[in-house]
Amino acid sequence: MKKVQIEVDGIVAEAELLEDRAPRTTAAFWDALPITTRLTHTIWSGRACGFSVERLQSVDGLEHGVCSIYPGTLIARPDAGEVLLSYGASEYRTVLGVQYGTRIARLVRNQAAVLAVLERMHDEGDKTITIKRAAG
Amino acid sequence: MPKRIRLTLDGVEAVARLNEDAAPETVAKFWAALPVEETLRHVRWGGEAGYILIRKLADKTQPIENRISIYPPASIGFRPEHGEVAFSYGQAQARDHVRPATWACHLATIETNVDAFFAKVRATRAEGGKPIRLTREEGR
Predict the structure, then answer these.
(1) How far apart are the first and last CA of chain B?
(2) What number is the average pLDDT over the span A84-96?
(3) How confident is the model at residue A1 (pLDDT cuts 50, 70, 90)?
């Protein structure tokens, strides 16, 4: 199973890609790595932060669509070229209401520390996120 | 003469007119709670708005007067169940983790220095919380 390393504000965590549930979306995400970009708190989806991955727009449609975003999971919305990472109660929403997204990964190492950084973003504002393929 | 409040957000001042005729009970309680000093943060569920919580105004039994769900730009909305005061600079709605849409009281409308004030509200998304002070605008 492919894994990625996620670094935010000096905290490093690891997530595994859910390739069996979302093969096309995880492949596009993997191909887009490494990424260093701005991480911004969502304004519609609750306790989650998001970043842009333009390459995801090449993926047609959703895979294994979900609305709820559980803490430590990454949800992609390919048409928006967007990925959200949740740290608490969260649901994929836009100005139009509740939407679906594709669950692409879940944190498997150092989850609590990175979620604490995301929660602080409500007070501290944007951060920089780096995601790269995990060694091995 | 309608009641007005002065808002000072991270050094930027604005004045808002309270909707006393349409929301007399809410305005009376809000007026009595002033002055208020808080940290304004960007909303997480409701779109393009910032918010503060005035805990002493939280009251789950208080009826919602002058109801709105979609916040008009430059409006100040109040949700009594949380004591939440929301300052909308664009597309925004009363929402939370349970309800994709709910109600708020249209408490006030900002009348002066609208663009500069809401630029500061918008900036809380990228820059984080900012200090805000709400006072009665009296004798002016």
Answers:
(1) 11
(2) 96
(3) confident
| CA gap B139, B130 in Å, rounded | 28
Q: What is the DSSP letter of B56?
A: G
Average pLDDT over all residues of chain A:
97
Report the residue of chain B nearest A94, measured CA to CA: B47
Residue A121 CA from chain centroid, whole number? 15
| Amino acid (one-letter) located at A92 | Y
- Which residue of A45, A47, A124 is in closest CB contact with B128? A124
With an 8 Å Cβ cutoff, are A40 and B125 in contact?
yes
The number of domains in chain A is 1
Residue of A41, A84, A92, A99 to mutate when probing chain B, most B C-beta within 10 A: A41
Q: Are B93 and B70 in contact (CB under 8 A)?
A: yes
CA distance A114 to A111: 5
Which domains does chain B carry? 4-136 (2.40.100.20)
| pTM flag (> 0.90) | yes
Do the beta carbons of residue B78 and residue B104 sit within 8 Å? yes
Q: Which of B112, B110, B130 is nearest to B120 (CA)?
A: B130
Q: Minimal CA–CA distance to A17: which of A88, A97, A75?
A: A75
CB B49 within 8 A of CB B121: yes
Find the mean pLDDT for residues A92-102. Answer: 95
pLDDT under 70 in chain B at which residues?
139-140
Average pLDDT of the residues in A62-73: 95
- Location of structure tokens 């000072």: B8
| A24/A13 Cα distance (integer angstroms) | 24
Work out how many CB contacts closer than 8 A connect A with B: 56
